[in-house]
Amino acid sequence: xxxxxxxxxxxxxxxxxxxxxxxxxxxxxxxxxxxxxxxxxxxxxxxxxxxxxxxxxxxxxxxxxxxxxxxxxxxxxxxxxxxxxxxxxxxxxxxxxxxxxxxxxxxxxxxxxxxxxxxxxxxxxxxxxxxxxxxxxxxxxxxxxxxxxxxxxxxxxxxxxxxxxxxxxxxxxxxxxxxxxxxxxxxxxxxxxxxxxxxxxxxxxxxxxxxxxxxxxxxxxxxxxxxxxxxxxxxxxxxxxxxxxxxxxxxxxxxxxxxxxxxxxxxxxxxxxxxxxxxxxxxxxxxxxxxxxxxxxxxxxxxxxxxxxxxxxxxxxxxxxxxxxxxxxxxxxxxxxxxxxxxxxxxxxxxxxxxxxxxxxxxxxxxxxxxxxxxxxxxxxxxxxxxxxxxxxxxxxxxxxxx
Length: 403
What we know:
By secondary structure, this protein is mainly β. Helices cover about 0% and strands about 65% of the residues.
């Protein structure tokens, strides 16, 4: 359900440095939420209806610097059980920080995205259904097969350098390193390294074409197997109006391994396509991703084909009410194992400001996962529904001073 990291990291920055001069901005909130989680009638024995509470906070900061833009987004807190199983409770943390250097003919960006969660990320920037807060990062989920009561640590670091060749051409190079770990030993741990040279040129003032060749290498701490992919991505981006833009990248993907008898060579197709709408305050996006990756953490799924569709929407109603929705559909099949897994996640939220500092919110999250594969016992089986509501302290975001 996740395309390779080159798409996820290009699209997933929550507050990426823009390189535009302005004042530094800081927005933050603190929240208390209660959630009720219900499962369908045909569920695994470790999935029990629960009532939980959470205390959390969020910070979004940009320094407004033209030459050295810095952006930070953070969400974290603590989740505890009121009724039902205490499995999957505890601390949750997610932070994305991005530092840029912008000159007349070149720019350099360093990103670090790190998270610690008690389950697979499913909703919002925090990854925890029901707690409310910031919208999810764009891009496909990094753990497409959804796991419950499964602590994970994920860290993705990327460096990207671009230089203008002439007035309408740009050459660049990007490198990234990503790890996925499970402290309790109940998931497939992976390492991923990518190197991707890129060349882009303007066709006119509205359209850009590009080619990026992505080399990816996947290794596993508990196995000697090495998996690799090579993917030339041919891209086209166009801005249709001030509000609408589209991006499309497609190319063949060659898959190989250190042991062809265990993991034979194969050829797939990688796709990244998106439509984005941004008005004055309303935003909407629809994306499709397809690729072969080294694995998502679920059991023995070493190497998998993933197809993902994601949708996000946010719209303010007046000055004090904000409505938002998100949905995703994922289809995953293993390179070595038989069977297929389908997951659906959808959520809606309403948040209202009750004054200059107090907010109230309510949300609903629907999750369904079905599979013909031999998934581990900690994978979601069937339907899960989460109803959440809470109150928060959130001063209106403001400027903190000049760069």
